[in-house]
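Sample intake sheet
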Amino acid sequence: MDNPREVLSRPAAAPDLTVRYGPLAEHVADVRWPPTTGAGPAPLVLVVHGGFWRSGTDRKHTGPQAVGLAAAGFAVAAIEYRRSGQPGGGWPGTFEDVEAAVAEVPGLVAEAAAREDVGVDTGRTVLLGHSAGGHLVAWLAVRKRPDVVGAVSLGGVLDLDAAYRLRLDGGPGPSAVEALLGGGPADVPERYAAADPTRLPAPALPVQALHGTADDVVPAELSRAYTTATGAALRLLDGVDHFGPIDPRSAAWPETVAAVRRAASGAPG
């Protein structure tokens, strides 16, 4: 594709509904239903968007990805959360929000599905995150959750120390991880220890890390470091860029759908 970033602004069909998981404006999730094909209750995919945890990117750019997942037979809820640059965003608000979303959204989706007579199995919930969202789902995966059966990270920022050293999304100001955590590893070591999936214990549920070898936004080495440290599954996608795994028009998209199917089945990847 000429411009891989085009997927971030490509128009997509509106969500079927939006649910609210908390009191703040950001505490919402856009829900899309699967086709009603009689194939049985669909697993739920909780999508955690990327954007280096910054306020300039929100859940709207997940539209093509969410529509593609729904077409593949999943119920999809793309969550929003407070980000760096917003009141309460960064540490710890960003983490509190995604944790609350995982706790509340499956139940809200189940209630809505019952009202609308849509078959959804929230007991097979999969966490799916891209880039910064990949970091957040790997962070969430350390704790066992009743309805969550697996997690998939796509081009995830899975090694925060490396992200700091590389000054990912730095520019003239603080790098992305500095803005998220309020400083570098020497400034706030306890936050890095609590937030970095590569430093945390092995995940409590199966995690798959998919990463393109041609990713020039988040190097694949960050996923490699995470999977080496934790034993999570790693799939390197040859020649794939940062945005291919979230683009239903890309050659990498079938890899994403297959990973979500494996996660929904409880397979380790």
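Comment: Residues 216 and 242 are 7 Å apart (CA to CA). The mean pLDDT is 96.
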